[in-house]
Amino acid sequence: MSCDEEFDLDRLARDSLHFRRRELELASGEELRIDARAWRDAIAFVESGEVELECSAGERSRFAVGAVLCFRPPVRFLRNSGDEPARLIAISRRTRERTKRSG
Q1: Residue 84, Cβ neighbours under 10 Å: how many?
Q2: What is the enclosing helix (H) or strand (E) of 65?
Q3: How far does CA 99 lie from the centroid of its chain?
């Protein structure tokens, strides 16, 4: 992909033999506790809304549409800090272990 081409998240985030796509939607004010094992190797793109990450020490950062996130420790919570639903698309590598569990 060259610098002049538009970023195509749908193409990049297709489920495939090597990559897994997950979609997550959080209602306004909804909070999700982050399990580091479940999000290992994942990168997430904020497609709509605004989210806030909270670390184990209590620090918080907000991210809006277009942000690219990684949920590595010490991230503890992900919450929708806006008035609208927040939608994220996450991509992670498939491993044999994950492929066996997911069927």
Answers
A1: 11
A2: none
A3: 19
- DSSP letter for each residue of 20-50: EEEEEEE-TT-EEE--TTTTTT-EEEEEESE
The mean pLDDT of the chain is 83
pTM (two decimals): 0.76
Domains and CATH numbers, the chain: 9-102 (2.60.120.10)
**Residue 73, SS3 per DSSP:** coil
Tokens, residue 2: 């060259």
Tokens representing residue 24 in the block: 């997550």
Segment 85-99 shows an average pLDDT of: 79
- Please report which confidence band the pLDDT of residue 14 belongs to, taking 50, 70 and 90 as the band edges: low
Nearest Cα to 77, choosing from 45, 29, 41?
Answer: 29
Owner of token pair 């060259």: 2
For residue 84, give both structure tokens. 């609208």
